[in-house]
Amino acid sequence: MQLLKLILYFNSFVWFLIPIRQFRTRFFYFFLVLAFFDPAVILLHQFLILRSLDVYLIGTVILIYTALIDFPTRTKLFIMLSFACISLVVVVYSLFDTIVIQITIHLIILIIFLRILVIYFSENRKILWFHLILTGYEFSILLKFFVYYTRIDIGVEYYYATTALQILIGIFFIFINEKNSPALKI
Question: What are the angstrom distances between the C-alpha of 174 and each of 83, 100, 133, 150?
Fold first, then answer.
């Protein structure tokens, strides 16, 4: 249990540093929301006795707004408010697990990041490591939620492996942003 808390706190610390490096980039708000995910879940779960999945759902709804980078503000607000209303109905009436909404939102975010990667590649004939790692990170989040939802019995080892991967990705984002990212020429 101590090791688990240590890993959780270290992961939170690493992700809390990322918005500093991403300041004044178009992904700043995305990383800022991610930086507050774990601390918010810990605090709201401890003090307000909220289910951690519900807190993650709130954060994920906010996250989609920040991920819709090249979309008009009205469209971003419409999508975010639509997911907020759906989430509220699901949480209040417990129609199904909130994980389905989170999987859907993260799938949309993954598609948005893949779109950014493809557009950059089509314009420059190279792939930024930043875009590639960001897409990989979002895929790992999507996979983590899918494993949780399907209740595949992988156990604690899977949690440690994915958290270690997220810490490494976080360290990458501390040093590399979209503006100074090395490129893969293809």
Answer: 30, 30, 12, 32
